[in-house]
Amino acid sequence: MRAYGKGFEEFYNRVRDEGVKYIRRDLDKPIKVEREGEGDILSVTAENEEKKIKIEADLVVLASCIVPNKGAKEIIKLLKITQSADNFLLEAHPKLRPVETATDGIFLAGCCQGPKDIPDSVAQACGAAEAASIPLFQGKVEVEAITSSIDDEICSGCRSCESVCVYGALSFDEEEGVMTVNDVLCKGCGSCGSTCPSGAISMNHFKDVQIYAQMGAMI
Ligand code: SF4
Ligand code: SF4
Predict the structure, then answer these.
(1) Contact at 8 Å (CB) between 43 and 20?
(2) Is 43 touching ligand 1 by the criterion CB < 6 Å?
(3) What is the pTM of this model?
(4) Tens of pLDDT along 36-85?
(5) Is the shortest distance between the CB of 124 and ligand 1 below 6 Å?
(6) DSSP-based helix, strand, coil % in the chain, nearest 5
(7) How many angstroms separate the alpha carbon of residue 56 from the centre of ligand 2?
(8) Best substitution site from 158, 174, 176 to test ligand 2's pocket, by max atoms within 8 Å of Cβ?
(9) What is the per-residue pLDDT across 123-170, written as a single tens digit (0 to 9) for each?
Protein backbone atom coordinates (compact mmCIF):
# COMPACT_ATOMS: atom_id res chain seq x y z
CA MET A 1 0.00 0.00 0.00
CA ARG A 2 1.29 3.44 -0.88
CA ALA A 3 -0.55 6.45 0.56
CA TYR A 4 -0.20 9.40 -1.84
CA GLY A 5 -0.27 13.04 -0.76
CA LYS A 6 1.77 15.21 1.54
CA GLY A 7 2.15 13.57 4.96
CA PHE A 8 -0.16 10.65 4.11
CA GLU A 9 2.63 8.03 4.17
CA GLU A 10 3.81 9.34 7.56
CA PHE A 11 0.21 9.17 8.81
CA TYR A 12 -0.13 5.61 7.50
CA ASN A 13 3.07 4.55 9.30
CA ARG A 14 2.12 6.33 12.52
CA VAL A 15 -1.28 4.62 12.85
CA ARG A 16 0.34 1.26 12.12
CA ASP A 17 2.75 1.91 15.01
CA GLU A 18 -0.27 2.71 17.15
CA GLY A 19 -1.80 -0.72 16.42
CA VAL A 20 -3.96 -0.24 13.31
CA LYS A 21 -3.82 -3.35 11.10
CA TYR A 22 -4.24 -3.17 7.31
CA ILE A 23 -5.33 -6.47 5.77
CA ARG A 24 -5.19 -7.28 2.09
CA ARG A 25 -8.36 -8.97 0.86
CA ASP A 26 -9.73 -10.35 -2.36
CA LEU A 27 -11.71 -7.49 -3.96
CA ASP A 28 -13.93 -9.89 -5.93
CA LYS A 29 -15.34 -11.42 -2.75
CA PRO A 30 -17.59 -9.22 -0.58
CA ILE A 31 -16.89 -8.55 3.08
CA LYS A 32 -19.55 -9.92 5.43
CA VAL A 33 -20.50 -8.23 8.69
CA GLU A 34 -22.62 -10.44 10.96
CA ARG A 35 -23.82 -10.49 14.55
CA GLU A 36 -22.32 -13.29 16.65
CA GLY A 37 -25.15 -15.15 18.39
CA GLU A 38 -27.43 -13.06 20.63
CA GLY A 39 -24.71 -10.72 21.95
CA ASP A 40 -23.36 -7.37 20.76
CA ILE A 41 -20.22 -8.80 19.18
CA LEU A 42 -19.97 -8.42 15.41
CA SER A 43 -17.84 -10.53 13.15
CA VAL A 44 -16.22 -9.29 9.95
CA THR A 45 -15.32 -11.96 7.41
CA ALA A 46 -13.18 -11.42 4.31
CA GLU A 47 -11.01 -13.53 2.06
CA ASN A 48 -7.62 -13.09 0.49
CA GLU A 49 -5.63 -15.36 -1.83
CA GLU A 50 -4.37 -17.51 1.02
CA LYS A 51 -7.05 -17.70 3.66
CA LYS A 52 -10.36 -16.64 5.12
CA ILE A 53 -10.04 -13.83 7.66
CA LYS A 54 -12.49 -13.45 10.53
CA ILE A 55 -12.30 -10.58 13.00
CA GLU A 56 -14.54 -10.04 15.99
CA ALA A 57 -15.36 -6.42 16.77
CA ASP A 58 -17.38 -4.32 19.22
CA LEU A 59 -17.91 -1.66 16.58
CA VAL A 60 -17.68 -1.73 12.77
CA VAL A 61 -17.33 1.56 10.91
CA LEU A 62 -17.89 1.37 7.16
CA ALA A 63 -16.30 3.91 4.84
CA SER A 64 -19.10 4.98 2.53
CA CYS A 65 -18.48 5.92 -1.08
CA ILE A 66 -19.03 9.30 -2.71
CA VAL A 67 -21.45 9.46 -5.62
CA PRO A 68 -22.44 12.47 -7.76
CA ASN A 69 -25.27 14.66 -6.56
CA LYS A 70 -28.67 13.71 -8.02
CA GLY A 71 -28.96 17.21 -9.49
CA ALA A 72 -25.73 16.80 -11.47
CA LYS A 73 -27.60 15.44 -14.48
CA GLU A 74 -29.68 18.63 -14.73
CA ILE A 75 -26.55 20.82 -14.50
CA ILE A 76 -24.84 18.72 -17.18
CA LYS A 77 -27.85 19.14 -19.48
CA LEU A 78 -28.22 22.83 -18.77
CA LEU A 79 -24.57 23.78 -19.21
CA LYS A 80 -23.92 21.20 -21.95
CA ILE A 81 -20.85 19.85 -20.21
CA THR A 82 -19.64 16.28 -20.33
CA GLN A 83 -19.53 13.62 -17.62
CA SER A 84 -17.15 10.76 -16.95
CA ALA A 85 -18.07 7.06 -16.87
CA ASP A 86 -18.68 7.32 -13.10
CA ASN A 87 -21.14 10.22 -13.70
CA PHE A 88 -19.00 13.00 -12.17
CA LEU A 89 -18.42 16.16 -14.24
CA LEU A 90 -15.56 15.78 -16.70
CA GLU A 91 -12.62 18.15 -17.17
CA ALA A 92 -11.49 19.13 -20.68
CA HIS A 93 -8.12 17.36 -20.24
CA PRO A 94 -6.89 15.56 -17.08
CA LYS A 95 -3.36 17.04 -17.28
CA LEU A 96 -3.43 20.12 -19.51
CA ARG A 97 -6.89 21.58 -18.70
CA PRO A 98 -7.86 20.11 -15.31
CA VAL A 99 -10.24 22.90 -14.22
CA GLU A 100 -11.82 23.63 -17.59
CA THR A 101 -14.72 21.82 -19.24
CA ALA A 102 -15.49 21.19 -22.89
CA THR A 103 -17.79 24.23 -22.71
CA ASP A 104 -15.97 27.56 -22.67
CA GLY A 105 -16.53 29.64 -19.55
CA ILE A 106 -17.53 26.70 -17.33
CA PHE A 107 -14.90 25.64 -14.78
CA LEU A 108 -14.80 22.83 -12.22
CA ALA A 109 -13.77 22.78 -8.57
CA GLY A 110 -14.32 20.26 -5.79
CA CYS A 111 -16.26 17.03 -5.51
CA CYS A 112 -18.41 17.68 -8.58
CA GLN A 113 -15.43 16.30 -10.51
CA GLY A 114 -14.75 13.32 -8.23
CA PRO A 115 -14.00 12.57 -4.58
CA LYS A 116 -11.58 15.15 -3.15
CA ASP A 117 -10.35 16.37 0.22
CA ILE A 118 -10.49 19.98 1.39
CA PRO A 119 -6.91 21.08 0.45
CA ASP A 120 -7.34 19.68 -3.08
CA SER A 121 -10.75 21.34 -3.44
CA VAL A 122 -9.36 24.70 -2.28
CA ALA A 123 -6.36 24.45 -4.62
CA GLN A 124 -8.60 23.56 -7.54
CA ALA A 125 -11.05 26.37 -6.70
CA CYS A 126 -8.15 28.87 -6.78
CA GLY A 127 -7.10 27.50 -10.17
CA ALA A 128 -10.67 27.67 -11.51
CA ALA A 129 -11.10 31.27 -10.27
CA GLU A 130 -7.83 32.31 -11.95
CA ALA A 131 -8.74 30.56 -15.20
CA ALA A 132 -12.15 32.27 -15.17
CA SER A 133 -10.56 35.68 -14.54
CA ILE A 134 -8.34 35.55 -17.67
CA PRO A 135 -11.08 36.31 -20.26
CA LEU A 136 -12.67 38.80 -17.83
CA PHE A 137 -9.44 40.82 -17.59
CA GLN A 138 -8.74 40.49 -21.30
CA GLY A 139 -12.25 41.68 -22.07
CA LYS A 140 -12.52 39.42 -25.11
CA VAL A 141 -12.20 35.78 -26.13
CA GLU A 142 -10.87 34.35 -29.36
CA VAL A 143 -13.11 31.82 -31.06
CA GLU A 144 -12.15 28.99 -33.36
CA ALA A 145 -11.92 30.02 -37.05
CA ILE A 146 -12.47 26.52 -38.42
CA THR A 147 -16.10 25.87 -37.53
CA SER A 148 -18.65 23.60 -39.10
CA SER A 149 -21.15 24.80 -41.65
CA ILE A 150 -24.47 23.09 -42.43
CA ASP A 151 -26.09 23.26 -45.84
CA ASP A 152 -29.83 23.79 -45.24
CA GLU A 153 -30.64 22.50 -48.70
CA ILE A 154 -29.05 19.12 -48.00
CA CYS A 155 -29.80 18.65 -44.27
CA SER A 156 -32.65 16.15 -43.84
CA GLY A 157 -33.12 16.93 -40.15
CA CYS A 158 -32.24 13.42 -39.00
CA ARG A 159 -30.48 14.87 -35.90
CA SER A 160 -27.72 12.20 -35.96
CA CYS A 161 -25.06 14.87 -35.55
CA GLU A 162 -26.58 16.50 -32.45
CA SER A 163 -25.46 13.86 -29.96
CA VAL A 164 -21.84 13.66 -31.14
CA CYS A 165 -21.09 17.33 -30.43
CA VAL A 166 -19.63 17.41 -26.92
CA TYR A 167 -19.42 21.21 -27.07
CA GLY A 168 -23.17 21.72 -27.35
CA ALA A 169 -22.73 23.74 -30.55
CA LEU A 170 -25.55 22.11 -32.50
CA SER A 171 -29.23 22.82 -32.04
CA PHE A 172 -32.21 21.80 -34.07
CA ASP A 173 -34.42 24.42 -35.69
CA GLU A 174 -37.89 22.90 -35.23
CA GLU A 175 -39.55 25.43 -37.56
CA GLU A 176 -37.22 24.91 -40.49
CA GLY A 177 -36.54 21.24 -39.72
CA VAL A 178 -32.77 21.65 -40.06
CA MET A 179 -29.75 21.56 -37.77
CA THR A 180 -27.98 24.82 -36.96
CA VAL A 181 -24.50 25.45 -35.61
CA ASN A 182 -23.47 28.05 -33.04
CA ASP A 183 -20.16 29.43 -34.39
CA VAL A 184 -19.08 30.69 -30.96
CA LEU A 185 -19.42 27.28 -29.30
CA CYS A 186 -18.14 25.20 -32.22
CA LYS A 187 -14.55 23.99 -31.81
CA GLY A 188 -14.18 22.67 -35.33
CA CYS A 189 -13.48 19.11 -34.20
CA GLY A 190 -15.25 17.72 -37.27
CA SER A 191 -17.11 14.93 -35.43
CA CYS A 192 -20.48 16.08 -36.75
CA GLY A 193 -19.21 16.14 -40.33
CA SER A 194 -18.12 12.53 -40.19
CA THR A 195 -21.49 11.52 -38.69
CA CYS A 196 -23.82 13.24 -41.17
CA PRO A 197 -25.23 10.60 -43.55
CA SER A 198 -26.32 13.29 -46.06
CA GLY A 199 -22.96 15.02 -46.33
CA ALA A 200 -24.58 18.31 -45.32
CA ILE A 201 -21.77 19.36 -42.97
CA SER A 202 -18.47 20.81 -44.05
CA MET A 203 -15.77 22.70 -42.15
CA ASN A 204 -15.20 26.37 -42.95
CA HIS A 205 -11.74 27.02 -44.44
CA PHE A 206 -11.30 23.27 -44.64
CA LYS A 207 -13.80 22.17 -47.27
CA ASP A 208 -13.47 18.93 -49.23
CA VAL A 209 -12.65 20.80 -52.45
CA GLN A 210 -9.81 22.60 -50.66
CA ILE A 211 -8.39 19.31 -49.39
CA TYR A 212 -8.70 17.74 -52.85
CA ALA A 213 -6.91 20.79 -54.32
CA GLN A 214 -4.10 20.41 -51.77
CA MET A 215 -3.79 16.70 -52.55
CA GLY A 216 -3.84 17.44 -56.28
CA ALA A 217 -1.08 20.04 -55.90
CA MET A 218 0.97 17.63 -53.83
CA ILE A 219 0.63 14.74 -56.28
S1 SF4 B 1 -17.30 20.60 -35.58
FE2 SF4 B 1 -17.25 19.63 -33.54
S3 SF4 B 1 -17.68 21.32 -32.15
FE4 SF4 B 1 -18.32 22.02 -34.18
S5 SF4 B 1 -20.48 21.51 -34.29
FE6 SF4 B 1 -19.36 19.80 -35.20
S7 SF4 B 1 -19.10 18.35 -33.50
FE8 SF4 B 1 -19.64 20.33 -32.60
S1 SF4 C 1 -26.65 14.58 -39.46
FE2 SF4 C 1 -26.62 15.86 -41.33
S3 SF4 C 1 -28.67 15.58 -42.20
FE4 SF4 C 1 -28.78 14.87 -40.06
S5 SF4 C 1 -29.44 16.70 -38.91
FE6 SF4 C 1 -27.19 16.69 -38.85
S7 SF4 C 1 -26.62 17.99 -40.60
FE8 SF4 C 1 -28.76 17.43 -40.92
Answers:
(1) no
(2) no
(3) 0.68
(4) 888 888 999 988 877 888 999 999 998 888 999 888 889 988 888 889 99
(5) no
(6) 25, 15, 55
(7) 64
(8) 158
(9) 999 999 999 999 999 998 888 888 999 999 999 999 999 989 988 899
